Amino acid sequence: MSQINQYRRKFLGAASAAFTGLSIAPGILLQTVHAKANDEAVTSKQRWGLLIDTNLCEPGCTDCIDACNQENGLRDIHGPETDAQWIRKVTLKHQKTGHVLNMPVMCQHCAEPPCVDVCPTGASFKRADGIVLVDKHICIGCRYCMMACPYKARSFIHEKLTDQLPHAPRGKGTVEGCTLCVHRIDRGENTTACTQACPNGAMTFGDLKNPESEISQKLAQHSGKELRAKLKLDTGVRYQGIQG
Fold first, then answer.
1. Which pTM was predicted?
2. pLDDT at 107
3. Which domain holds residue 156?
4. Residue 28 falls inside a structural domain
């Protein structure tokens, strides 16, 4: 467990913003990024989350997906069957009313994440501020987390990757998913690429524990629903405009 804890501390930010290469297997080179200083440890004082108003999400719009792909260096290689999809657009139709809505679905950053429960190495873990991540250095690619996730929010990297971004380390044979732009959060930027890119303001990012934050005020005024709420996972991503 000491080795796993050591790797986790790297992800939680134990050094200044600098990166180095690290080989985890033949042909796989990842970049290790340290985004926080020693005196800026991640704490549970915040819980970061997203609020998505499906009434403002336009059919066919992929701005949030495009922004996520650009921000994290995701590239179209073969198509959605094998390529990484940190965000995917879903169309839902209510069986009784016929109401149709569109919404982005990504890692829901659960307070009780099933992916963490099933991971045999501790590669899937939740930070103190609620962000669920994958430590690529100890991910063995078993894909148990993909099977356990009720939101189909994780992708397996099938291809050898080049030209990676320092803040988004990726590697063939590992699993990945939405990080809530953790590199931005650790730099003190209270926003995500998808939130900034949304043309209609359908996405709101912020601290769910801060009653003065925009996301908390919107939830207090209009409430919000969890996807598959019966699972009682206490998701960090909430939706408005979806019917029960």
1. 0.82
2. 98
3. 41-240
4. no
C-alpha Rg value of the chain to the nearest Å: 18
Residue 6 lies in a domain: no
Assess if residue 89 is contained within a domain: yes
Per-residue model confidence (pLDDT) at position 228: 95
In this prediction, residue 23 carries a pLDDT of 42
Are 36 and 42 spatial neighbours (Cβ–Cβ below 8 Å)? yes
**Residue 138 covered by a domain:** yes
pLDDT digits (tens, 9 = 90+) for 151-171: 999 999 988 888 889 999 888
* Domains: count for the chain: 1
Does residue 204 contact residue 180 with C-beta atoms inside 8 Å? no
Task: Give pLDDT < 50 ranges for the chain.
Answer: 1-7, 9-39
Q: What is the CATH number of the domain that holds 86?
A: 3.30.70.20
* 164 vs 77: CA distance, rounded Å: 14
Residue with tokens 């069986």: 95
